[in-house]
Amino acid sequence: MTASESCVQTFLQFIECLCVCRAVDVDFVTWRGHLTKVLTTPYERQEGWAMAATLFNGTIYLSEVETEEARASREARTDRDQEMMYWGYKFEQYMCAEKVEGAPDPGGVVNTNEAFCTVVQTRLVCHTLLFSGEVDCRLKDPKAPPAPGCYVELKTSAEIRTSKQRSNFLRYKLIKWWAQSFLPGVPLIVAGFRDKDGIVASVKTFKTSKISQMIKSEYETWKPTVCMNFCNDFLSFVKSVVREDNPGLVYLFSWEPRREVCFSIHRDSAYSFLPDWYLHATTGHPLSIQKESFYPQ
After folding, report:
1. Which residue of 103, 117, 213, 220 has the lowest C-beta tally within 10 Å?
2. Cα angle for residues 273, 76, 159 (degrees, 5° grid)
3. How far is CA 241 from CA 53, 245, 250, 252, in A?
């Protein structure tokens, strides 16, 4: 099972296990990372993606399918790649405390399998969405606004020393940071800028709502409205295609750079991703959740 599939499974457990307090009529259930990929698609030039969609109880479930290219890239990761990924987790450890009155413990062991996730119900134009995503931390201030207004995304990036590096940061990295925080409503991104040895030289805070202003002066940069319009159009396209309410029927949507989104239909195939326990537990019942956060096990 891939990390993406594991995330979706945990999310389904959350939906099934919580006590029902109110009905939620949503068009889509998915994972935040899947929507991030769709949002950034208009400006992606290297990596394609594939999304499996199935209609069950009137709701479309979206789950990413690992492409052959993505699998090859994952399997080809070097020790250096792994080390740089570890730096990100270590930065989080330096920035976060386990308790409000506590202090960070940078000397502790980094657990890369530990995560806190939130569940968000929102709307994009005419589409209602229910999705889950990892949250790095929250503001320590007890007077901070309620979730998601108190959430903070933590990032690391290479130091910016030249105008070319700044341009690349604004055009290629900031779009992903924005897309990741925009939909769940995470207002702040705290970034540590590191050298080639992983030593953080400076820390900067970005307001998600102000990122669009930061990139205006950049020539031929990305535009948030283009990202949102594409995501809206894609979800509308999925709705127009996925019509049969049958969890055994999967519509596989795929996209490659400089090509249009295409789809294929698969019945009772390896692409089916809703587990039997979930189908049995929720058959005949409307999708219902509580407004809470949860810890994946």
Report:
1. 220
2. 105
3. 10, 12, 11, 11
End-to-end CA distance of the chain: 15
Contacts of 136 (CB under 8 A, 6+ apart): 92, 96, 116, 151, 152, 153, 154
Q: How far apart are CA 69 and CA 73, in angstroms?
A: 6
Q: How far apart are CA 261 and CA 242, in angstroms?
A: 14
Q: For the CA atoms of 156, 161, 165, 166, what is the dihedral angle to 10 degrees?
A: 80
> According to the model, what pLDDT value does residue 293 have?
35
Percent of the chain with pLDDT over 70: 90
Mean pLDDT of 189-214: 97
C-beta of residue 288 within 8 angstroms of C-beta of residue 20: yes
Q: Distance between CA atoms of 272 and 104, rounded to whole angstroms?
A: 42
Contacts of 81 (CB under 8 A, 6+ apart): none
Ordered by start, the domain boundaries in the chain are: 3-294
Average pLDDT of the residues in 232-261: 97
DSSP β-bridge partners for residue 193: 157, 202
Mean pLDDT of 162-174: 95
Give the pLDDT band (50/70/90) at residue 151.
very high
Task: Determine how β-strand 59-65 pairs with β-strand 28-31.
Answer: parallel
- Asked if residue 115 has pLDDT above 70, the reply is yes
Q: How many CB atoms lie within 10 A of CB 211?
A: 19
pLDDT band with cut points at 50, 70 and 90 for residue 292:
very low
Helices (H), the chain: 3-17, 32-40, 68-75, 79-95, 163-168, 174-182, 211-214, 224-241, 276-282
